[in-house]
Amino acid sequence: MNTNYTTVKALIESFTKEYLPDRVDEILSLLDTLNENNSNKIENAVNLELLASTLIYIYAKKNGINGRGGITTSLLGKFFKIKPASINPKINDLDYYLRKRVVVSGNNDYKIAEDYEYIDKSRYKVQDEYWSILENDSLSIEKREEKLLNLIQKDADFFDPYISLSELYAEQKRAKEHCEILQKGFDRAINLISRNGQMPSMLEWGFIENRHIIRMIYNYANFVWLVNDREKAYAIFKLLLKMNINDNIGARYAMMAILEGFESPYRLEELFMDEEGFGLDAFGLDDWFDRVVQKHKKEIDWWLKAIEE
Q: 202 in helix, strand or coil?
């Protein structure tokens, strides 16, 4: 067990001994979950007092013992000698790693729950800030990155900033950050919509609230395809199609392209980019799909039948 784990454990025990003597094991179980899901969050932590206080506060919030007369950020800040305002941003950083993780079978087959529709909550405040960032042409690359990262701190489950950051990193040839931000966004998106480890039967584009989630999953699938894990990419596109039968984002085209042996999404773009270069030629793409789907009916027959009903 690493030294940081031992130190954080001792810090939690010192607080619970005084304020929550009967809850120590339950709070330490959060530390164990974090250690199991992402031990780097403990091993690489700089402020161990902040980590301990955040885990305690997460527990207090989930169990309704925060707030007046309970475990407040002010109390934790005073006990651990940290700034109380630093706790809430840290919650966003840790929350995902304290959730039950979605398990994918060996053949990348996501499990779909029956009669479970997911509709996200409105995120209009961060969405408005996001568009303000994109529309501000005067921002330097560094400032744009800073603002997008701050937006993720405000709402880690609003995914358009992850996509914009991935594009920024790709343009700067920052491969490590590009990969990491896409992975983080995808993981959070999948776990946000899951229920008991299973995917929703419906995640419809028709609800504007869902679109940032669908875009995140789609962009990650394209990335996986680009790095040549076509089996995994196909499974993710298939998941998108199953959850949104109307397929507003075009997952079915990507599935057919993978089955046709296309090495990356760029090949699809090369073939069907419209003459002005503003998007794909929808008519040409549909004609191509109608031809190639005849060769792959077995793989997509379930969808063909669904749209006929």
A: strand
- Token match 């960032």: residue? 133
261-279 residue pLDDT tens: 998 898 888 888 877 666 7
Beta bridge partners of 117: 202
pTM of the model: 0.71
Q: How far apart are CA 71 and CA 20, in angstroms?
A: 9
Say how far apart CA 111 and CA 201 lie, in whole Å: 9
pLDDT tens per residue across span 216-230: 999 999 999 998 889
- Identify the bridge partners of residue 112 per DSSP, sorted by sequence position: 199
Q: Across the chain, what does the average pLDDT equal?
A: 90
How many other C-beta atoms can be found within 10 angstroms of the C-beta atom of residue 23? 17
Residue positions counted in the chain = 309
